[in-house]
Amino acid sequence: MKEMMKEMGEFAKDAFKHVYSIHKNMMKLTSGEDELSEKQENWNFNVDKYNEWVMQHDPNPKSNSKKLRKKYKPEKLSKRDLADVTESIDRDLDLAIEAITDIEGTVNSYQDPDSFQSWVDIEKSNKESNNE
């Protein structure tokens, strides 16, 4: 039973990973822009805070324009990149569906007493053979 739950957890993590990847790729597809790296996102966050601080101390645009920092902007995706993103979405969707059906199969085998008992017997025989 413990191994079955562990297996279902692995399938669920795998499905979540693929769904998250689909989400990121859908964002790319709808915006037409590539995502920023973590370093660039951190820079942009800090730039916002710094620029806010500059504006509080010197609200005059003529004098503070040289002090303000620029943010990274995401790159536009080419048509080929958009096609690759679409292929990646298809691939991740197939893998997520596969992981979910693996979970469903594991649950169904648990609900079917004959199938579950044969699974338990196989696990017992595997343990016995490993102990020898």
Give a short summary of the structure.
This protein is an all-alpha fold.
Quantity of strands, as a count: 0
* Number of domain modules: 2
Q: How many helices?
A: 5
Mean residue pLDDT? 83
% residues in beta strands? under 5%
**Main sheet record:** none
Q: What is the distance, rounded to the nearest whole angstrom, between the alpha carbons of the first and last residues? A: 23 Å
Explain how this protein is built.
- The structure is a single chain.
- The chain folds into two domains: 1-34 and 80-132; 36-73.
- Helices cover 80% and strands 0% of the residues.
- The protein has helices spanning 2-31, 38-57, 61-64, 79-111, 113-131.
- Helix 1 packs antiparallel against helix 4.
- The longest helix has 33 residues, at 79-111.
- The mean pLDDT is 83.
